[in-house]
Design brief:
By secondary structure, the protein is α/β, with parallel strands linked by helices. It has helices spanning 2-22, 26-41, 53-66, 85-95, 102-108, 125-136, 167-188, and strands at residues 46-49, 78-80, 114-119, 140-146, 158-162. It is built from 7 helices and 5 strands. It has a 5-stranded parallel beta sheet with strand order 2-1-3-4-5, with helices on both faces. Helix 1 crosses helix 7, helix 2 crosses helix 7 (167-188) and helix 3 runs parallel beside helix 7. The protein is globular and about 55 Å long. The protein starts with a helix and ends in a 20-residue tail after the last helix. It is an enzyme of class 5 (isomerase).
């Protein structure tokens, strides 16, 4: 029991410290929320992707948009590229694991849509490939990242980077962040006024 209590306390301290350090990154999270709202208001679709625990976050965001988070509302168009094991294994087998997200994104997404990639390292090859595909097709993109953002940070229009080297803490904040975005989306879709119309809209790529 003492060991369990010790683990609980240590985990709580780490999470609180990570959240405290992440406060300076909240403007980037706000920009991701604005991108999501703008995409949906313009009739676009949000596509999500990630690996492992990040795939769970990608699936969670998409299902809450199509279903609901807190408010009963019309369903919102969102697709997780992690959801179809037949497509994932077909593409991985025939084209390579690095193409499992970029290939369906190429088939399904159109200008005005948004790709949102999750990667705690910022170096997942399949997320990088999807971000680069999005750029080449004039599809807006955002990334939920960790550590120093890795190679993915400059590839996305907006990157929210959780300043931690703990995969567990990064994933926990990513889940919290996507819940913040869902709440913003549900409030904004019923409110046509600022800040959602244009305020904090990213005019250029993060890191450029």
């Amino acid at each position: 029991m003492n060991e369990i209590k010790s683990i609980l306390r240590a985990s709580k301290r780490e999470l609180e410290e990570t959240l405290r350090r992440a406060e300076e990154t909240f403007p980037a999270l706000e920009k991701v929320a604005v991108l999501c709202v703008q995409c949906l208001r313009q009739g676009g679709t949000i596509f999500t992707a990630g690996n492992g625990g990040s795939a769970a976050d990608a699936l969670h965001l998409a299902e809450e948009l199509v279903g609901r988070y807190r408010t009963t509302r019309d369903p919102l168009p969102a697709v997780s590229l992690c959801a179809d094991p037949t497509a994932l294994t077909c593409i991985a087998n025939d084209f390579g694991f690095s193409e499992i997200f970029s290939r369906p994104l190429s088939a399904l997404a159109r200008p005005g849509d948004l790709f949102l990639g999750f990667s705690t390292s910022g170096s997942s090859a399949n997320i990088l490939s999807a971000l680069r595909l999005a750029r080449s097709r004039s599809i807006r993109s955002a990334a939920f990242l960790g550590k120093d953002g890795g190679q993915a940070a400059p590839e996305a229009d907006v990157s929210w980077i959780v300043p931690s080297h703990s995969t567990a803490r990064i994933q926990e904040l990513h889940t919290w962040g996507l819940h913040v975005i869902l709440e913003c989306v549900e409030k904004a879709m019923g409110n046509q006024e600022e800040p959602w119309r244009s305020k904090a809209s990213p005019e250029s790529r993060e890191g450029d």
